[in-house]
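2024-03-11 09:14:02 INFO worker-7 job=invfold-0412 stage=load source=structure_tokens
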């Protein structure tokens, strides 16, 4: 491969080397002329031999200067050859780098371009051509007015000018009419500099983020909708931060149930609203969640919470894991079962009292000598004491309990006892 032409720096070095060579030659010539005459005079050469001495001086001058010129030119040529070799290697390396960059640009799924100071395209990759519907030949040397509507071209030019004026990279959202329709690009642009560091243009990489932005808009809309459902839910709801266990969000229903203000609750942790006897169970449950041992929908069962002023609340809690403002949280929904639990306790107490009264009554009836039995509305025995069982011809009360009286004693149908029982019912 032929060496590439030297750059300006190499040319300047060659010129400097030439000046040094001429200076050395001139210095040697001056010294030879002056010193050779002094030597001839010092040696006292006769006048008759002066002609031959001058010839010898001339020949000596030619020999010495020729040798010096040869050495100087040899050194200069060696340095020039070395400079050419270095420049050639640098140019070949640069060519390989440019070829690699061109390959990367051509195979990139992002639009990549380079413009000069006037906004004319110098590089335009395949993806940029696909998006704009223009070939490289149609674009190189032209500015954005050849590709986009005037208002879009003006927007692009303003962003380019800002990057070159500030001499630093910037990122812009640019929405443009393209061959694929109206597209929003996330464009990162930076200044292009020459060897002296002067800004001579700009480069850019643009990525189609239309679908990404649409997805983000849908996500924001969905978040707003679910936030509204969260806030307006008639059931108490809250979000708990996994790292700090603080309340990340609370709805109005929870504030109404607990009696706390929103500011108070958002400054508290789950342990702050849990009575002492429940805290160890809650620590164990939340610790498993923090370690990632539990996730997803959890039916948490019944918990005791403390409202404002220490008011005791019993709630059934269901939870699930979600992301809230980029943080992992657990969203929980509670049903206040305090009144239900109170009703259940009272019902249990009443049932216990009734059972105790029944047992006492049965004990009394079992001890009396008279027969005693009881029937329900379907004419089935619900109680029979031992004496009644014996009078009715049975060994134990169990022989009659749950049985139909008129099936057990069909002969009594139509008799006095039958009529009396029906009148009593």
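2024-03-11 09:14:09 INFO worker-7 stage=emit residues=425
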């Amino acid at each position: 491969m032929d060496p590439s032409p030297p750059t300006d720096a190499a040319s300047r070095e060659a010129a400097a080397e030439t000046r040094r060579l001429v200076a050395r030659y001139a210095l040697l010539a001056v010294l030879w002329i002056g010193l050779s005459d002094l030597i001839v005079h010092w040696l006292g050469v006769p006048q008759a031999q002066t002609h031959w001495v001058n010839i010898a001086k001339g020949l000596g001058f030619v020999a010495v200067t020729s040798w010096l010129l040869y050495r100087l030119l040899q050194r200069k040529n060696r340095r020039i050859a070395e400079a050419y070799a270095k420049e050639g290697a640098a140019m070949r390396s640069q060519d390989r780098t440019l070829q690699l960059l061109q390959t990367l640009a051509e195979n990139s799924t992002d639009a990549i371009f380079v413009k000069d100071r006037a906004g004319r395209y110098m590089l335009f990759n395949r993806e940029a051509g696909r998006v704009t519907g223009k070939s490289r030949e149609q674009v190189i040397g032209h500015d954005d007015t050849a590709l986009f509507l005037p208002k879009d071209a003006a927007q692009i030019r303003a962003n380019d000018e800002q990057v070159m004026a500030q001499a630093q990279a910037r990122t812009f959202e640019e929405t443009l009419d393209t061959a694929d329709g109206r597209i929003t690009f996330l464009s990162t642009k930076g200044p292009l500099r020459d060897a002296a560091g002067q800004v001579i243009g700009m480069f850019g990489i643009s990525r189609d983020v239309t679908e990404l932005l649409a997805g983000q808009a849908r996500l924001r809309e969905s978040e707003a909708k679910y936030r509204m459902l969260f806030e307006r839910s008639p059931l108490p709801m809250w979000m708990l931060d996994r790292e700090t266990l603080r309340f990340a969000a609370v709805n109005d229903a929870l504030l109404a149930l607990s009696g706390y203000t929103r500011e108070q609750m958002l400054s508290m942790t789950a342990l702050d609203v849990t009575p002492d006897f429940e805290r160890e169970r809650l620590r164990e449950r939340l610790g498993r969640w923090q370690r990632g041992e539990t996730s997803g929908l959890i039916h948490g069962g019944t918990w005791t919470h403390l409202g404002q002023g220490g008011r005791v609340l019993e709630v059934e809690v269901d939870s699930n894991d979600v992301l809230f403002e980029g943080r992992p949280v657990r969203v929980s929904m509670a049903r206040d079962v305090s009144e239900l639990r109170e009703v259940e306790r009272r019902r249990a107490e009443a049932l216990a009292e009734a059972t105790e009264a029944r047992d006492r009554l049965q004990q009394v009836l079992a001890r009396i000598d008279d027969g005693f039995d009881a029937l329900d509305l379907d004419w089935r025995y619900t109680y029979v004491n031992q004496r009644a069982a014996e009078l009715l011809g049975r060994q134990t009360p169990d022989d009659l309990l749950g049985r139909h009286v008129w099936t057990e004693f069909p002969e009594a149908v139509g008799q006095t006892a039958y009529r009396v029982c029906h009148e009593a019912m």
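2024-03-11 09:14:09 INFO worker-7 stage=report msg="The first helix runs from residue 8 to 43."
2024-03-11 09:14:10 INFO worker-7 job finished
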